[in-house]
């Protein structure tokens, strides 16, 4: 095995060209408005709902999902307790996960969700519906500002843009492939 | 069979060819819309190209840097010289964990290595979890596109397949309902998966992270529910810095489907506590391609599929006509590196129109490489002898002006006086199958010109 | 009659007329139109008769080594001209791009640099901005890939939605001329040189689709700057007995100037 490593590295060294320069990436910027973020996110199937604050999050969630009961959250009273060790069967039964999004990117409607905010790495995907709370001031214009702001991606983290979707059958867009069937962003 | 022979089979169903062409053209138009809306798109292409060029020029350095960072993160890094070694490593890891149930998200590399048949042969259940991949897995077909693996199928085909394999109602061809059936079916597989295999879109040398981009969320779901994550990557997936991702995430999906970004752009750096993460770095011909100056730029490819969507040949011949894991223009410049004889017809499956080069988000000079592969193939004796000799003959005529003038005159006279049925016979004049020959004029331009000169 | 300074310059310019082999043999009227159009614009072009071909058929088949004597014949034929002008973007592109495999002597460099596609020459060397005349037809403009993407004579849909280009601008000055708005402005016609026989099925299908776009959108006259694409499209139009006339743009422009 290590034999292949040495063999590959030697072949790479022998075959790669003279060093070419690594360019600096200029800080392209753009419209970083909440309006742009909202328009783009809604265009890719997300729902954006402004709320007053997170004190009555349970009421908001109840209004949005009147028939779903099993909620896992770091931000409100949970009916399902989830942590990194939660068994799969319990995770699979979660209807709604309500989590904190770190910041949004206006150009593509994506939201940074680090592992620290997930309760369990599988939760944002396995839940039927995902709700992310986002500070409306935390919007950056483009991915350049997004990665600059991040500095580190931590152990695991996702840029998440809308609900799970697919167009694998005849290019027909279907929302709700394997991950969450819906994404609601609560703007505070 | 050559590409043109396989294309002729595809073309037999004219209506389906129209549908296939229009469906992919629609994707190309979505790409255009997204590209036009971003003023700096051409600058981003140039940056993406330069970052990849730089990475390939210091690949040995970045591979080692990546390995060191990943190892520090608690990830186990493996090296595979070829497909067989890759498959052996993956099987070994699965066996080590006494696992039999594997879920796999999209990875063109594992397709290239034919991992699935290897695992199945060894008693492992491997389930492709990307919807398109799952559909073709059930049908025992190869993907026909790198991003849209089941784009050659119509919803009726999928309806039939799901009726047989998932028990959906016969005649139910509704994409929404078929997707829901697949969701239920695959949930069970996700929950039961012991080992998750994923592909890699980008590997970041400075952090040791791998980045996986999906719309369905299947990679994250599979990886985060399983005990073991095996990420398989070609060695060309490296980029130097985390910040370089800003460039690549901006061009990848806009080029691929016209989306501003994939739904999930997931960064896997360390395994979750109590779990394992492995990365298999694969060569399988890549170092050889790196050593071909005319063709090494093909290793910059980020597998967006834009060259397929724009290619007027691909759209009308289908991905399977290429008979290679990566179809379309990029496949036609990658495949001869792997097996020159088998794929000799692919670089000729192009009009060299150049549209592929113009959409490529990392600026691979695809159509120039197609032209150059033709030269290599001819030099290596991999083009038909009849073509070679007729080109020799043509050259000897065209480098002798006198012979050319005479030959041209004879050909024209022949066309003028031979019966239409003979000059347009399908057996030996492929031009005439669908086209009329030009009406031969009495006089060539040069004859007219000479006459004019005399008059003057 | 006195000449303006630019007319005098045009008269003094030594221009070699490059008539590609298939135009010479099958479309002499395109060569004639090119010669006459240049003359009307004050350029006396000369046709050196030892010219044959640019060598593209061999090179695109993978046999560029076999094309080398043809390249040399081309360079020797045209080395003494200030410009080499031809009514075929694809052949011009081949000379400019692919003659790089022979020794780059001063004469080779000179010929490569100064071989120009006809309309590129009219606009960028002669400074022609419009051609007075009328052509009261609905005209479908076929962009040759090598002219457009290779020589950058027209905008590319891969880059911009703006449909602009050299030939379009020249034709716009014709009175009564209306352009066909095509569904796909710059899709390849499928000719592709030897591709048209080695991949005959796909080539024909691409051409048929291109022609349908013109039929659907009302083209009466199909034109372009590259006779090879037009030869292929004409073959399909004639096979289908369709009411579309195919003309090289040099014929339209030459016919307009009286």
TrEMBL record, chain A:
Gene3D superfamilies: NagB/RpiA/CoA transferase-like. Pfam families: LUD_dom (PF02589). Residues 89-188 form the LUD domain. This is LUD domain-containing protein. It comes from Hymenobacter cavernae.
From TrEMBL, chain B:
InterPro entries: 4Fe4S_Fe-S-bd, 4Fe4S_Fe_S_CS, FTHF_cligase-like_sf, Helical_ferredxn, LUD_dom, LutB/LldF, LutB_C, NagB/RpiA_transferase-like. Keywords: 4Fe-4S, Electron transport, Iron, Iron-sulfur, Metal-binding, Repeat, Transport. It holds the Pfam family LUD_dom. It comes from the Bacteria. The keyword Metal-binding applies. Residues 291-321 form the 4Fe-4S ferredoxin-type domain. PROSITE patterns: 4FE4S_FER_1, 4FE4S_FER_2. PANTHER family: LACTATE UTILIZATION PROTEIN B. This is 4Fe-4S ferredoxin. The lineage of its organism: Bacteria, Pseudomonadati, Bacteroidota, Cytophagia, Cytophagales.
From TrEMBL, chain C:
It comes from the Bacteria. InterPro entries: Cys_rich_dom. It holds the Pfam family CCG. Residues 15-95, 139-233 form the Cysteine-rich domain. Transmembrane segments: none annotated. PANTHER family: LACTATE UTILIZATION PROTEIN A (PTHR30296:SF0), UNCHARACTERIZED PROTEIN YKGE (PTHR30296). This is Fe-S oxidoreductase. It comes from Hymenobacter cavernae.
């Amino acid at each position: 095995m290590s034999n292949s490593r040495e063999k590959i590295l030697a072949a790479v060294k022998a075959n790669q060209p003279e060093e070419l320069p690594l360019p600096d990436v200029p800080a392209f910027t753009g419209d970083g408005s909440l309006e742009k973020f909202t328009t783009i996110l809604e265009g890719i199937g997300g729902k954006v709902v402004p709320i007053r604050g997170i004190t009555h999050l349970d009421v908001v969630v109840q209004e949005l999902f009147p028939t779903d009961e099993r909620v896992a959250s770091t931000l409100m009273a949970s009916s399902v307790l989830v942590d990194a060790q939660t068994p799969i069967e319990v995770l699979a039964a979660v209807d709604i996960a309500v989590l904190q999004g770190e910041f949004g990117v206006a150009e593509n409607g994506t939201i940074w969700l680090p592992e620290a905010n997930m309760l369990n790495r599988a939760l944002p995907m396995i839940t039927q519906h995902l709700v992310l709370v986002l500070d409306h001031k935390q919007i950056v214009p483009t991915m350049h500002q997004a990665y600059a702001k991040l500095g580190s991606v931590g152990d695991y983290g996702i840029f998440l843009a809308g609900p799970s979707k697919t167009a694998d059958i005849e290019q027909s867009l279907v929302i709700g492939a394997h991950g969450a069937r819906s994404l609601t962003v609560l703007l505070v | 069979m050559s590409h043109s022979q396989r294309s002729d089979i595809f073309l037999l169903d004219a209506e389906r060819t129209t549908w296939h062409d229009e469906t992919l053209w629609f994707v190309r138009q979505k790409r255009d819309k997204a590209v036009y809306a971003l003023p700096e798109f051409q600058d981003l292409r140039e940056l993406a190209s330069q970052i990849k060029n730089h990475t390939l020029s210091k690949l040995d350095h970045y591979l080692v840097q990546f390995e060191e960072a990943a190892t520090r993160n608690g990830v186990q890094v493996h090296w595979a010289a070829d497909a067989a070694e890759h498959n052996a490593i993956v099987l070994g890891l699965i066996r080590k964990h006494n696992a039999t149930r594997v879920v796999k998200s999209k990875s063109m590399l594992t397709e290239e290595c034919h991992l699935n048949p290897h695992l199945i042969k060894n008693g492992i259940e491997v389930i492709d979890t990307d919807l398109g991949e799952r559909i073709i897995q059930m049908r025992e077909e190869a993907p026909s596109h790198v991003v849209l693996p089941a784009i050659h199928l119509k919803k009726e085909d999928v309806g039939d397949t799901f009726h047989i394999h998932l028990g959906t109602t016969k005649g139910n061809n509704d994409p929404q309902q078929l997707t829901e059936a697949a969701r239920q079916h695959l949930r069970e597989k996700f929950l039961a998966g012991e080992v998750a295999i994923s592909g890699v879109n980008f590997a970041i040398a400075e952090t040791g992270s791998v980045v996986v981009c999906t719309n369905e969320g299947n990679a994250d779901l599979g990886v985060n529910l399983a005990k073991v994550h095996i990420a398989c990557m070609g060695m060309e997936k490296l980029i130097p810095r985390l910040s370089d991702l800003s460039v690549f995430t901006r061009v990848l999906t806009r080029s691929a489907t016209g989306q501003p970004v994939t739904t999930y752009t997931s960064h896997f750096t360390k395994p979750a506590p109590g779990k394992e993460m492995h990365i298999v770095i694969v060569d399988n011909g890549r170092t050889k391609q790196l050593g071909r100056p005319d063709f090494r730029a093909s290793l910059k490819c980020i597998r967006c599929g834009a060259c397929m969507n724009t290619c007027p040949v691909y759209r009308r011949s289908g991905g399977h006509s290429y008979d290679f894991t990566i179809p379309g223009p990029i496949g036609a410049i990658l495949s001869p590196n792997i097996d020159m004889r088998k794929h000799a017809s692919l670089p000729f499956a192009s009009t060299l129109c150049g549209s592929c080069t113009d959409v490529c988000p990392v600026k691979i000079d695809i159509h120039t490489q197609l032209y150059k592969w033709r030269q290599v193939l001819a030099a290596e004796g991999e083009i038909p002898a009849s073509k070679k000799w007729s080109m020799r003959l043509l050259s000897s005529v065209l480098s002798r002006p006198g012979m050319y003038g005479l030959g041209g005159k004879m050909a024209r006279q022949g066309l003028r006086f031979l019966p239409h049925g003979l000059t347009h016979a399908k057996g030996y004049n492929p031009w005439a199958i669908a086209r009329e020959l030009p009406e031969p004029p009495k006089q060539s331009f040069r004859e007219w010109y000479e006459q004019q000169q005399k008059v003057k | 009659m006195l000449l303006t300074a630019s007319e005098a310059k045009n008269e003094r310019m030594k221009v070699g007329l490059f008539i590609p082999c298939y135009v010479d043999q099958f479309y002499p009227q395109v060569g004639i139109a090119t010669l006459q159009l240049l003359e009307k614009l004050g350029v006396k072009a000369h046709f050196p008769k030892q010219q044959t071909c640019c060598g593209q058929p061999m090179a695109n088949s993978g046999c560029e080594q076999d094309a080398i004597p043809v390249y040399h014949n081309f360079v020797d034929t045209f080395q003494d001209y200030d410009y080499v002008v031809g009514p075929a973007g694809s052949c011009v592109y081949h000379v400019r791009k692919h003659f790089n495999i022979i020794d780059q002597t001063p004469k080779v460099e000179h010929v490569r640099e100064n071989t120009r596609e006809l309309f590129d020459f009219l606009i960028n060397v002669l400074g022609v901005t419009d051609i007075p005349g009328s052509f009261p037809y609905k005209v479908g403009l076929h962009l040759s890939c090598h002219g457009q993407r290779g020589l950058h004579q027209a905008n590319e849909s891969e880059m911009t939605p703006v449909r602009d280009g050299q030939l379009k601008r020249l034709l716009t000055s014709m009175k009564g001329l209306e352009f066909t708005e095509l569904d796909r402005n710059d899709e390849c016609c499928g000719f592709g040189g030897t591709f048209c026989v080695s991949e005959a099925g796909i080539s024909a299908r691409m051409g048929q689709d291109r022609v349908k776009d013109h039929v659907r959108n009302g083209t009466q006259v199909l034109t372009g700057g590259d006779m090879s694409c037009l030869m292929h499209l004409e073959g399909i139009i004639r096979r289908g007995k369709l009411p579309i006339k195919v003309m090289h743009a040099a014929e339209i422009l030459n016919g307009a100037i009286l």
